[in-house]
Design goal:
The chain is mostly helical. The protein contains 5 helices and no strands. The longest helix has about 40 residues. The protein is elongated, with a radius of gyration of 27 Å.
């Protein structure tokens, strides 16, 4: 153990980090192969075989050939998730227990407008509290 220097530890940690990063890249490419809708079944099978049998060459070629479309799919998926989340929040904020979605949705909008007026200084805190109580009752 005496001949294992700090530099050796550094190199070990560096190689371990690179190995973990390689695994992340490999799994990213494999998941992109399966979620790509513009590839046929045979295309997916070919890329998967190339990636698994010759992993370094397969991943390198895949990133070179399909890297731009891979990033476009990532962006589209993130936008879809964001839109779904925003739609869920709007739906959850606009529904009430009685089923009158428009009434509660308008209350939320009115409260937001009141808070904005209060923040700008157009109304005082007392006016804000009175209007808020009036809306919620």
């Amino acid at each position: 153990m005496d001949d294992y220097t700090l530099l050796d530890l550094f190199w070990t940690m560096l190689w371990f980090f690179l190995w973990v990063m390689w695994l992340f890249l490999l799994f990213k490419v494999i998941t992109d192969i399966f979620r790509s809708h513009d590839l046929s079944g045979w295309g997916k099978a070919g890329w998967l075989i190339l990636t698994l049998l010759l992993p370094y060459l397969g991943v390198l070629v895949y990133v070179i050939v399909r890297g731009k479309s891979m990033s476009r799919r990532d962006i589209k998926e993130a936008q879809d998730r964001d839109a779904a989340f925003k739609a869920y929040v709007r739906e959850a904020a606009g529904t009430s227990d009685t089923g009158d979605a428009t009434k509660k949705g308008s209350h939320v909008d009115d409260l937001a407008r009141l808070a904005e007026l209060r923040d700008r200084g157009a109304i005082t805190d007392e006016e804000y509290q009175r209007a808020k109580t009036k809306l919620l009752v």
